From TrEMBL:
EC number, as in UniProt: 3.5.4.2
Annotated NCBIfam families: aden_deam, PRK09358.1-6
Protein name: Adenine deaminase
Chain positions recorded as Zn(2+) binding sites: H9, H11, H188, D270
GO process annotations (BP): adenine catabolic process; hypoxanthine salvage; nucleotide metabolic process
Family indicated by similarity: Belongs to the metallo-dependent hydrolases superfamily. Adenosine and AMP deaminases family. Adenine deaminase type 2 subfamily.
One function term, GO molecular function aspect: zinc ion binding
Alphabetical UniProt keywords: Hydrolase, Metal-binding, Nucleotide metabolism, Zinc
Keyword Zinc part of the UniProt annotation: yes
Organism superkingdom: Bacteria
Ranges of residues in domain Adenosine deaminase: 4-316
HAMAP family, per the entry: Adenine_deaminase
Length: 319
C-alpha cells in the first residue's frame, strides 16, 4: 500500500463502479444498455473528454435518492481509506442530478451522510460543489443559490465538464458570490483547453488550485506565475492517459517536467471507476513508469497535504 495522501481531485459520480451501477439501476427501475458488469466496463473506453462525459452523464441516471448518494459516497470513502487517503476533498455535480428532477437536498444530504460516516472512521473529508461549465453561467448561479441553504455541507466550488468553448471568465459572477460566502475556489483548466484558460481561472475566478493544468506547460510565463504563487495543480495521470490529454505512454507523462519546474503538483484519480484506478493505483503506476524515487513519492504526498483545504493543524500533523 502507498503511504498516506490527500485526494483532492475525484468526482464522486466518477467513482460509480459497474457493480453499483447495476444494483442501483435494478433498484430504481432504470434501463441500462447491458446489465453485464464486464460488458459495462468495456463501454468505459474513451479517446477524448467528451466521449467520457457522455457515458458518465448517462450513468448518473441511476442515482435518484439520498440513499443512492449515501451508498455511492460510502463505497468511495471505504475504497479511498484502503488507498491510504487520510484527507478527501470530493467533487460533486449537482446540476447532473437536479436537471433529472432529483432534489438537491437528496444529493447533498446523501453525500453528506457518507462524509459523516467517513469522518467517524477517522478520515478528514469534505465536499466541493462543481458547476457544469457547458450549462453556462446562469445555470451555475441558479444551482449555487439553490445550494446556499446547504452551505455548511460543502467547503468550496469547482468548474468541470466540457472545457473548450466554455472559458472560466464566463463564471466570474458566481465565483465572486462564492468568494463572498467564504468558499474555496478551484477550477478545471488546461486539461483540453489552452494556457489562456488557466490564466483566466487565476485572474478572473481567483482560484486557489488548478485541476489538471497540464497545458500550462506550453506557456513559460504561466509556469513562472504558478511556481511563484505556489498555485497547486491536481494532476491525474490515468485520466490523462484515458482521455489522451497526455502522451499515450505513462513513461512520457509531463509530471517530471512539472516537478523540475518547481510546481506544486500532486497525484489524484479524477474518475477512478472509468480510468482504471484510484489514487493508490495512480501513484503506483507513475512511480513505476517514471521510476520515481522515494524522496519524490514523499514530495508528492506532502504536496497533496499542503495543497489541501484542511485546517493548518491537521496539515502539520500529516507532513
Ligand atoms: N467531470 C468529471 N471528470 C472530468 C474531467 N476530467 N474533466 C472535466 N470534467 C469532468
Ligand atoms: Zn476532474
Amino acid at each position: 500500500m502507498m503511504g498516506p495522501t490527500a485526494e483532492l481531485h475525484v468526482h464522486i459520480e466518477g467513482t460509480l463502479e459497474p457493480d453499483l451501477l447495476v444494483r442501483l439501476a435494478r433498484r430504481n427501475g432504470i434501463d441500462l444498455p447491458t446489465y453485464d458488469v464486464d460488458e459495462l466496463r468495456a463501454t468505459y473506453a474513451f479517446t477524448r473528454l467528451q466521449d467520457f462525459l457522455d457515458v458518465y452523464e448517462a450513468n448518473t441516471a441511476v442515482l435518484r435518492t439520498d440513499e443512492d448518494f449515501a451508498e455511492l459516497g460510502e463505497m468511495y470513502f471505504r475504497r479511498a481509506a484502503a488507498a491510504g487517503v487520510v484527507r478527501a476533498e470530493v467533487f460533486f455535480d449537482p446540476q447532473a442530478h437536479v436537471r433529472r428532477g432529483v432534489p438537491i437536498e437528496a444529493v447533498v444530504e446523501g453525500l453528506g451522510a457518507a462524509v459523516d460516516a467517513a469522518r467517524s472512521r477517522g478520515m478528514s473529508a469534505d465536499l466541493i460543489l462543481c458547476f457544469l461549465r457547458d450549462l453556462g453561467p446562469e445555470a451555475a448561479m441558479e444551482v449555487f443559490e439553490a445550494a446556499l441553504p446547504l452551505r455548511d455541507r460543502f467547503i468550496g466550488v469547482g468548474l468541470d465538464s466540457t472545457e473548450v468553448g466554455y472559458p472560466p471568465s464566463l463564471f466570474r459572477d458566481v465565483y465572486a458570490r462564492a468568494a463572498a460566502e467564504g468558499l474555496h475556489r478551484v477550477a478545471h483548466a488546461g486539461e483540453e483547453g489552452g494556457p489562456d484558460y488557466v490564466w483566466e481561472a487565476l485572474d478572473v475566478l481567483g482560484v486557489e488550485r488548478i485541476d489538471h493544468g497540464n497545458r500550462a506547460l506550453e506557456d513559460p510565463a504561466l509556469v513562472a506565475r504558478l511556481r511563484d504563487e505556489g498555485v497547486a495543480l491536481t494532476v491525474c495521470p490515468l485520466s490523462n492517459l484515458a482521455l489522451r490529454t497526455a502522451p499515450p505512454e505513462l513513461s512520457a507523462h509531463p509530471l517530471p517536467v512539472m516537478l523540475e519546474e518547481g510546481l506544486l503538483v500532486s497525484i489524484h484519480s479524477d474518475d477512478p471507476a472509468y480510468f482504471g484506478g484510484y489514487v493508490d493505483d495512480n501513484l503506483q503506476q507513475v512511480r513505476d513508469a517514471l521510476q520515481l524515487d522515494d524522496e519524490t513519492m514523499r514530495r508528492l504526498a506532502e504536496n497533496s497535504f499542503v495543497s489541501s483545504f484542511a485546517p493548518r493543524a491537521q496539515v502539520d500533523g500529516w507532513i
